[in-house]
Amino acid sequence: MLETLLTINSPDMNLLDKIQPFYVMQLLNRAKALEQAGADVVHMEIGEPDFPTPPLVVNAGIEFLSKGEVKYTPAAGLSALREAIARFYAERYNVEVPVSRIFVTPGASGAVLLALAGLLERGGEVLLSDPGYPCYPNFVRLLGGEPRLVPVGVETNFQLDAEILRRHWTAKAQGVVMASPSNPTGTMADGATLREIAEFLDAHGGFWLSDEIYHGLVYGEPARSALEFSDRAFVVNSFSKYFGMTGWRLGWAVVPEAFIVLAERLAQNLFLSAPTHSQMAALAAFSPDNLAELERRRREFETRRDFLLRELPGLGFGIPVPPQGAFYIYADCSRLTDDSFKLAWRLLEEAHVAITPGKDFGLNEQQHHLRFAYTASLGRLTEGLRRIREFAPVIKTGASQSQDVPFQPDDQNFNILGEA
Ligand SMILES: Cc1ncc(COP(=O)(O)O)c(C=O)c1O
Predict the structure, then answer these.
(1) Is the pLDDT of residue 225 over 90?
(2) Atom of ligand 1 nearest to the CA of 108
(3) pLDDT band at 16 (very low <50, low <70, confident <90, very high)
(4) Are the CB atoms for 299 and 340 separated by under 8 Å?
(5) Is residue 368 left, alpha or beta, with left meaning phi > 0 and alpha meaning psi from -120 to 50?
């Protein structure tokens, strides 16, 4: 009996190999342990806004919860919320989206799962940018597909474009998942690029899953939605980032007309419904007063981004493409190290600054990149950079505690291991 239970409970080793952990979680756990031991850690690794959920949204949630009637909603979500999302597309993007195509989900994560669960065939390839958001390849593998990581760089703003898709498209290719602005680079694909991607995928019958979770958090030209260019696109978005509601677990998918019936069945089976109180709270998210508050927050993120863009190069970090959105800077640390993972650990252990190593975002030059998240106040970011500046001589010598070698950011010949 016990043996049978053990067999049932033992994890599928294949799946364990296929699903990668978030390396940053180890780092975060260590940061928490350091904090428990009394250390003051500057957090620049966290991919969620430091601002609390806006009060109007919280109050709407509390008012609903106080009635105690927290029951399932229809699988596709509350009609009022789906209608509010449809209005949002009309106002922000000038795109008419029928409410029937909108599915409210548990976060963008639920929306990506819903879309890929309905789209992927066994062995089908999905093209993904490298660097990119680490859950995509894991979802694709989980659902029996093959992630095809395509290196992207400065030339294309760290985004996929039609030419890259052409070069990497194979007979097994089924579609593309991309995020603009991107995690981890914060860079965006412009309207012309999105139009060409839409045309390429129409011509090849490929699906297009456009993750627009960082829309709203942009610092130049507004982000364009895939829905402006294609009726076949699957768009996912979320209340997590721009709306500041990470823990409420609420997002949405806009699916093509032909996918509505399948999406409905999948939503019923996968989730039953997204959290009801979160949906009720989110109804307040689109009010003009709340949007004004979100605009204040966006401006604060912009100030922080500009600060890091100004200061990081002086510490030896390269930023070849200034990010236009999200709250990340994917900094090139090749002048400091050939092992960004090790550098991230040393910065945490020795300077008490937490930064996410490139290893979390793919294979392409990951050893030369760190992702700075500006999800901390300007004061904390300033303190973080002060510590990195102090730590820099240690990086240069490879020593553990030495402070006596002045840091020279223009020196090309050093790395974290102290090797010339
Ligand atoms: C690009 C991207 N997509 C999706 C998600 C998941 O977000 P959610 O909280 O809406 O599930 C994240 C979270 O960091 C992300 O960066």
Answers:
(1) yes
(2) 10
(3) confident
(4) no
(5) alpha
134 Cβ closer than 6 Å to some ligand 1 atom? no
Calpha distance 398→392 (Å, rounded): 10
Q: Which residues of 92-123 are buried (b: 16+ CB within 10 A; e: fewer)?
A: ebebebeeebbbbbbbbbbbbbbbbbbbbeee
Ligand 1 pocket, 179 CB below 6 A?
yes
Any atom of ligand 1 within 6 Å of the Cβ of 251: yes
Q: How confident is the model at residue 379 (pLDDT cuts 50, 70, 90)?
A: very high
Candidates 137, 209, 161, 220; CA nearest to 186 is 220
Lowest-confidence range among 244-253, 393-402, 410-419? 410-419
Q: Are 70 and 277 in contact (CB under 8 A)?
A: yes
Q: Is the CB of 250 under 6 A from ligand 1?
A: no
**CA-CA distances (angstroms) from residue 136 to 23, 57, 129, 395, 397?**
15, 29, 10, 33, 38
pLDDT classification of 23: cutoffs 50, 70, 90? confident
- Ligand 1 center–CA 108 separation, angstroms: 6
Q: How far is the CA of 109 from the centre of ligand 1 (A)?
A: 6
Please tell me if the CB atom of residue 133 comes closer than 6 angstroms to any atom of ligand 1: yes
CA 360-211-230 angle, 5° bins: 145
Cβ–Cβ under 8 Å, residues 375 and 49: yes
| Contact in structure between 316 and 409 (CB atoms under 8 Å) | yes
Amino acid identity, residue 372? F
pLDDT bucket at 403, cuts 50 / 70 / 90: very low
